[in-house]
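#help-structures
NK: newbie question, is this the right format to request a structure? protein is HMA domain-containing protein
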Amino acid sequence: MPPQMKIVVKVPMHCDKCRTKALKIAAAAHGVSKVSIEGANKDHVEVIGDDVDSVCLTRSLRKKLGCSCTIVKVEEVKPAVKTEEKPTPACTLQCRPMYCELVREYPEPTTCSIM
């Protein structure tokens, strides 16, 4: 299985319609698993996926959006290392202790009243 790649492409987008169109184009590329808009000006399209060709993705964005797109960064996504944590007890100090009290509705007779 090829490693997942993270590709960031700078796309000049001036409205929400352009952003939506860029997301749709990027999501349609082969091997893409996640697409998002990043950057301070929301002008970077971040694509994460397996075996994604960054050149073909950029060429497709240029052709379909009609603007100049540039590749900013291509890097391999490393899987997150999971650290083993000790399970926390279900009930901690925030739970109040429960108390039970035995209440008898009818007192027990000491002698039999029928006989």
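mod (FA): yep, format's fine, and the tokens are attached above. Helices lie at 16-27, 54-65.
NK: thank you!
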